[in-house]
TrEMBL record:
Record-given protein name: Mediator of RNA polymerase II transcription subunit 22
Subcellular location as annotated: Nucleus
Assigned protein family: Belongs to the Mediator complex subunit 22 family.
Pfam families in UniProt: Med22
Keyword Transcription regulation: yes
Keywords: Nucleus, Transcription, Transcription regulation
Main location: nucleus
GO cellular component: a single term: mediator complex
Keyword Nucleus: yes
Length: 165
């Protein structure tokens, strides 16, 4: 009987009587997923959130740089650009706060996550490194044996020449 890996990730679900924001197709697909698929979907969702906030910051910086043009401007144009810069800066602050919140949540997920998976990966990597080390030792021993065998006949021949003299 093969065991399905379990995680400590909570799977929020609606009560059977709840009808607010009930999406039957999504909740059914979450229940049918195994742990790896569920975690991949959560990771993809986090990546989308981060990408969206970073894109907001980049667009904001581009807009602020374009608003910072120097030239002859009347008071109306200056006021309009100041308002645009202020509203863009506010959206950038919201995006930055959102990124900070995402970072905090990801840190908590890492700290509170199941360490068995991390330990399993570490042990697997340690096994691979030990296997590679043993193979390298065997190669070095074989090369050293070959080197000693090839130098041994020449030493014997030198010893025989010394005995003949």
């Amino acid at each position: 009987m093969s065991e399905v890996p379990h995680t400590d990730v909570s799977r929020p679900s609606a009560l059977p009587t709840a009808n607010l924001l009930q999406r039957p197709t999504i909740s059914q697909s979450l229940v049918e997923q195994n742990s790896a698929e569920y975690l991949d979907a959560v990771e993809e969702e986090w990546n989308k959130k981060v990408d969206m906030e970073v894109e907001t910051l980049v667009d904001g910086m581009v807009d602020l740089v374009s608003l910072a043009s120097i030239g002859d401007k009347d008071k109306f144009r200056i006021a309009q650009e100041a308002f645009q810069a202020q509203s863009r800066a506010e959206s950038m602050v919201r995006a930055t706060n959102s990124l900070l919140s995402i970072t905090h949540s990801m840190k908590l997920l890492l700290l509170l996550s199941d360490e068995a998976q991390i330990a399993h990966r570490r042990d697997a990597e340690l096994g691979v490194v030990r296997t590679e080390r043993d193979e390298a030792r065997q190669k070095v021993a074989a090369l050293l044996d070959d080197l000693l065998r090839s130098s041994a006949p020449s030493t014997r021949q030198q010893g025989q020449h010394a005995d003949n003299k």
